[in-house]
Protein backbone atom coordinates (compact mmCIF):
# COMPACT_ATOMS: atom_id res chain seq x y z
CA UNK A 1 0.00 0.00 0.00
CA UNK A 2 1.26 3.48 -0.92
CA UNK A 3 2.10 5.77 2.05
CA UNK A 4 1.19 8.87 0.01
CA UNK A 5 -2.23 8.02 -1.46
CA UNK A 6 -2.91 4.56 0.06
CA UNK A 7 -3.24 3.16 -3.48
CA UNK A 8 -2.30 -0.40 -4.52
CA UNK A 9 1.31 0.46 -5.44
CA UNK A 10 4.60 1.39 -3.81
CA UNK A 11 5.53 4.99 -2.98
CA UNK A 12 8.18 4.97 -5.72
CA UNK A 13 5.44 4.28 -8.29
CA UNK A 14 2.85 6.75 -6.92
CA UNK A 15 1.34 9.05 -9.57
CA UNK A 16 0.76 11.66 -6.82
CA UNK A 17 4.37 11.65 -5.74
CA UNK A 18 6.18 14.94 -5.99
CA UNK A 19 8.68 14.10 -3.30
CA UNK A 20 11.77 12.13 -4.13
CA UNK A 21 14.59 10.52 -2.21
CA UNK A 22 17.63 9.34 -4.13
CA UNK A 23 21.14 8.22 -3.43
CA UNK A 24 24.05 6.60 -5.21
CA UNK A 25 26.63 4.46 -3.43
CA UNK A 26 30.05 4.14 -5.05
CA UNK A 27 33.48 2.90 -4.15
CA UNK A 28 36.65 4.73 -5.16
CA UNK A 29 36.72 2.93 -8.52
CA UNK A 30 33.31 4.43 -9.40
CA UNK A 31 31.45 1.09 -9.25
CA UNK A 32 27.87 1.42 -8.00
CA UNK A 33 26.55 -0.82 -5.24
CA UNK A 34 23.00 -2.00 -5.88
CA UNK A 35 22.74 -4.99 -3.55
CA UNK A 36 25.78 -4.72 -1.27
CA UNK A 37 24.89 -4.09 2.35
CA UNK A 38 27.52 -2.72 4.71
CA UNK A 39 28.05 -4.87 7.77
CA UNK A 40 29.08 -1.97 9.98
CA UNK A 41 27.81 1.47 10.89
CA UNK A 42 29.49 4.10 8.70
CA UNK A 43 29.62 7.89 8.95
CA UNK A 44 26.30 7.95 7.12
CA UNK A 45 24.74 5.58 9.59
CA UNK A 46 22.43 2.63 9.15
CA UNK A 47 18.69 2.36 9.90
CA UNK A 48 16.28 4.84 8.41
CA UNK A 49 14.81 7.18 11.00
CA UNK A 50 14.83 6.33 14.68
CA UNK A 51 12.48 8.08 17.09
CA UNK A 52 11.45 7.41 20.64
CA UNK A 53 7.73 7.87 19.84
CA UNK A 54 6.91 6.94 16.22
CA UNK A 55 3.93 8.53 14.45
CA UNK A 56 1.01 6.14 14.02
CA UNK A 57 0.59 6.58 10.25
CA UNK A 58 4.00 5.09 9.37
CA UNK A 59 5.27 1.52 9.67
CA UNK A 60 7.78 0.96 12.49
CA UNK A 61 9.49 -2.04 14.03
CA UNK A 62 10.94 -2.29 17.52
CA UNK A 63 14.65 -3.10 17.68
CA UNK A 64 17.12 -3.73 20.44
CA UNK A 65 20.51 -2.12 19.79
CA UNK A 66 23.24 -2.39 22.42
CA UNK A 67 20.59 -3.40 24.96
CA UNK A 68 18.39 -0.35 24.30
CA UNK A 69 14.93 -0.47 22.73
CA UNK A 70 14.48 1.75 19.67
CA UNK A 71 11.85 2.11 16.94
CA UNK A 72 12.94 2.03 13.28
CA UNK A 73 10.82 3.34 10.42
CA UNK A 74 10.31 0.75 7.66
CA UNK A 75 10.53 1.88 4.03
CA UNK A 76 9.74 -1.16 1.89
CA UNK A 77 11.06 0.47 -1.29
CA UNK A 78 14.40 1.57 0.20
CA UNK A 79 17.61 -0.18 -0.78
CA UNK A 80 19.66 1.25 2.10
CA UNK A 81 18.93 2.34 5.65
CA UNK A 82 20.36 5.19 7.71
CA UNK A 83 20.62 6.34 11.31
CA UNK A 84 21.05 9.83 12.74
CA UNK A 85 24.57 10.50 13.99
CA UNK A 86 23.25 11.61 17.40
CA UNK A 87 21.49 8.23 17.77
CA UNK A 88 24.72 6.41 16.90
CA UNK A 89 26.58 8.36 19.60
CA UNK A 90 23.70 7.98 22.08
CA UNK A 91 23.85 4.20 21.66
CA UNK A 92 27.67 4.22 21.87
CA UNK A 93 28.02 2.46 18.52
CA UNK A 94 31.40 2.17 16.85
CA UNK A 95 31.71 4.30 13.72
CA UNK A 96 34.22 3.37 11.01
CA UNK A 97 35.20 5.48 8.04
CA UNK A 98 34.41 3.83 4.73
CA UNK A 99 35.83 4.72 1.33
CA UNK A 100 32.50 4.47 -0.50
CA UNK A 101 30.34 7.52 -1.17
CA UNK A 102 26.60 7.97 -0.92
CA UNK A 103 24.82 10.87 -2.58
CA UNK A 104 21.38 11.70 -1.25
CA UNK A 105 18.65 14.06 -2.42
CA UNK A 106 15.35 15.02 -0.86
CA UNK A 107 12.57 17.46 -1.74
CA UNK A 108 9.20 18.50 -0.33
CA UNK A 109 6.11 16.46 -1.17
TrEMBL record:
SUPFAM superfamilies listed in its UniProt record: Acid proteases
InterPro entries named among the record's database cross-references: Peptidase_aspartic_dom_sf (IPR021109)
Pfam family, one: gag-asp_proteas
Recorded superkingdom: Eukaryota
Protein known as: Gag-asp_proteas domain-containing protein
Species for this entry: Cephalotus follicularis (Albany pitcher plant)
Lineage, uppermost ranks: Eukaryota, Viridiplantae, Streptophyta, Embryophyta, Tracheophyta
Amino acid sequence: ECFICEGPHRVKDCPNRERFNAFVAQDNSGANFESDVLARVTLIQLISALRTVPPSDLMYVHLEIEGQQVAAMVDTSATHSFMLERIVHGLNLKVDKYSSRIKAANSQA
